[in-house]
């Protein structure tokens, strides 16, 4: 039996969360305010990767930004008394985007853009001694195609993705929009749940 090879679409997966107010307001307002800034940063990054193939006047048409709904989730790790998080996921793909081979230099450049956006939202990474503590904005780079990186600043794919329902559930929502949700079937006599 032979199978037709399908061209794999390169997707960029980003997780966004917050659980304390920052300079932009409460977590929901912060994430909403940063949404266009995140998209703009990715667009600018994509233009730089694809120059001169992309006309910067038409860049907004070359990428698809697929946002998950907002979810309220319990903190995972960190101080016991911290507030619940607001989380979402962004999946990015597009024609010109998939023409670039995922690479460490480009991934590190995008991660720097995300760290700069966190600072704009009031997050201070340098002055905190609490691991997995409260934050006004957290932008996690989850994956980019099949790229594997292991540096102090960035590990791709995210090493604890399978332990993060606050990423997996929003990601499933985005993917189900594109692919359709599977239909659950019940067969208790054969398959007890």
From TrEMBL:
Keywords, in A-Z order: ATP-binding, Folate biosynthesis, Kinase, Nucleotide-binding, Transferase
UniProt xrefs under InterPro entries: Hppk, Hppk_sf
UniProt GO molecular function: 2-amino-4-hydroxy-6-hydroxymethyldihydropteridine diphosphokinase activity; ATP binding; kinase activity
Pathway(s) the chain acts in: Cofactor biosynthesis; tetrahydrofolate biosynthesis; 2-amino-4-hydroxy-6-hydroxymethyl-7,8-dihydropteridine diphosphate from 7,8-dihydroneopterin triphosphate: step 4/4
Enzyme Commission designation: 2.7.6.3
One Gene Ontology biological process: tetrahydrofolate biosynthetic process
Catalytic activity, as annotated: 6-hydroxymethyl-7,8-dihydropterin + ATP = (7,8-dihydropterin-6-yl)methyl diphosphate + AMP + H(+)
Pfam family for this entry, one: HPPK
Organism superkingdom: Bacteria
Domain spans labelled 7,8-dihydro-6-hydroxymethylpterin-pyrophosphokinase: 64-174
PANTHER family: 2-AMINO-4-HYDROXY-6-HYDROXYMETHYLDIHYDROPTERIDINE PYROPHOSPHOKINASE (PTHR43071)
Name of the protein: 2-amino-4-hydroxy-6-hydroxymethyldihydropteridine diphosphokinase
Organism: Prochlorococcus marinus XMU1408
Source organism phylogeny: Bacteria, Bacillati, Cyanobacteriota, Cyanophyceae, Synechococcales
